[in-house]
Amino acid sequence: MTAPSQQGSVSTIPTIPGSRFLGNLSDMRTDRLGFFLRLSRECGPIARFQIGKRAVIVLSAAEYVHTVLVEQAANFEKTIQVRANLGPLLGNGLLTSENEFHRRQRKLVAPAFQHRRVAAYAEIMARYTEEQIAGWADGSTLDIAHEMMRLTLRIVGKTLFDADVLQEADDLGAALTTALQWANGRFATIIRTPANWPTRANRRFRAAQGRLDATVYRMIEERRRSGEDRGDLLSMLLAARDEDDGSFMTDQQVRDEAMTLFLAGHETTANALAWTLYSLNGETAVVARLQAEADEVLAGRTPTFEDLARLPYALQVFKEGLRLYPPAPMISRQAQAAFTLGEYHFPAGTVVVISPYVLHRQPAYFSDPERFDPERWTMTNEASLPRQAYMPFGGGPRICIGNHFAMMEGQLILATLIQRLNLRLLPGQKIVPEPIVTLRPRGAICMAVERHGVMHAGTGSRETLPATSV
Predict the structure, then answer these.
(1) For residues 92 and 236, what is the distance between their CA atoms, to the nearest angstrom?
(2) To 10 degrees, what angle do helices 251-279 and 200-226 make?
(3) CA distance 226 to 62
(4) Per-residue confidence (pLDDT) for residue 109, from 0 to 100
(5) In angstroms, rounded to a whole number, what is the distance separating the alpha carbons of residues 74 and 460?
(6) Are strands 351-354 and 54-59 parallel, antiparallel or unpaired?
């Protein structure tokens, strides 16, 4: 570790030395999450790393994170790299847009995620979960990460766009993976080839983008042609008018917002559920308590929105999965003006990185941080946390607009699964997190299905239900 020698100078912020010309590029490419954990542990709450000659600041204290994302949010925008690398996929949607345009678009999209509408989505979430797991035969083996992607993709298609994408789920999932891997590769390089150059990687990305666009533009065209207002997100986007000139959004603008929410609306929850189910392996007492809660509250029936308040432990378990494996493991911002944090003064243009993955593993906030412990999320324990110590969906004015949607979806799916079956991790696998924009597992998470039936109210007995074709 390099110790500071001149107070206030960015060049003296503690760092882990890298190569002379490439800086810490190799560390970022080989084990990005491990490198950020090392920076926090060896260099403290304000650390620095190099990509080539450019210094990047890493924050791992909740108070500094709160300053950047909340108190001084207006001074910090998405970085040029985020817009350049995700822009070809997401266009100028909520994730990449800035300033007044972002505020206007967020205000436009917000009604789709109001409490009243989110509550109405619960029935679809639970019903689609029942339909999917009905096809899982007792003793069969499946990739739970893939299954959760298929399920949440179908849910977001129906709830936000009133479209059933079940038959396209595998194709769309593969296309999203290709597109995200392309974007991730561009983050971990100094010299990026233009996206329109005919390289092999760019050609694969364009093919994946074309597959995704085909579905999104088809939904837009069909809705425009029908003229229906179905009260969903897509209808809201198509009906929106500019406050100044009264014009409607173009198909490109609708596509950008739809693509952003299509991606974020399923990718984050799918990953969080897969990691939560993975984390439950070996947690016999946690699983038993989850099942007891589901048996008592549901007694074999499909959960509803009204049941959520009576399923608090399912929510605690999901929150703990989000703590250990936050969907967005890294958040970056670029300062528009000079600022001060702690004893250091930073110039305009400084890039700041915040890693929820690292923040959620700080012993100052979470004792024995690598341990899976849903008791951290009792009301008393959660209330004792500093602001921004837990931020699975970001923070401040740019917090994920669908965070309540995702939390409800995760709680409902978990409760539905747990009362029907157990999922046992197959031995011999090395499950490694891979931060490709979102935090996916590298490869499959193979699990064996053990159907245990459902508890009948008043009898205390279970009936094992066979798998069916859906």
Answers:
(1) 17
(2) 110
(3) 49
(4) 86
(5) 57
(6) parallel
Q: What CATH code is carried by the domain that includes residue 355?
A: 3.30.43.20
> What percent of the chain is modeled with pLDDT above 70?
93
Q: Which residues contact 451 (CB under 8 A, 6 or more apart)?
A: 136, 137, 138, 420, 421, 464, 465, 466, 467
Q: Domain of residue 15: give its range.
A: 1-88+329-367
Contact 330, 355 (CB under 8 A): yes
Q: How far apart are CA 90 and CA 467, in angstroms?
A: 38
When divided into structural domains, the chain yields a total of: 1
Which residue ranges of the chain lie beneath pLDDT 70?
A: 1-7, 188, 190, 242-244, 453-470
Answer whether 402's CB lies under 8 Å from 261's CB: yes
| Token reading at 401 | 């607009």
Query: Residue 243 in contact with residue 108, Cβ under 8 Å?
Result: no
Q: How far is CA 341 from CA 56, 271, 346, 363, in A?
A: 14, 33, 8, 22
Q: What is the pTM of this model?
A: 0.91
State the residue for tokens 């505020």.
103
Joined together, the tokens standing for residue 316 give: 């605690």
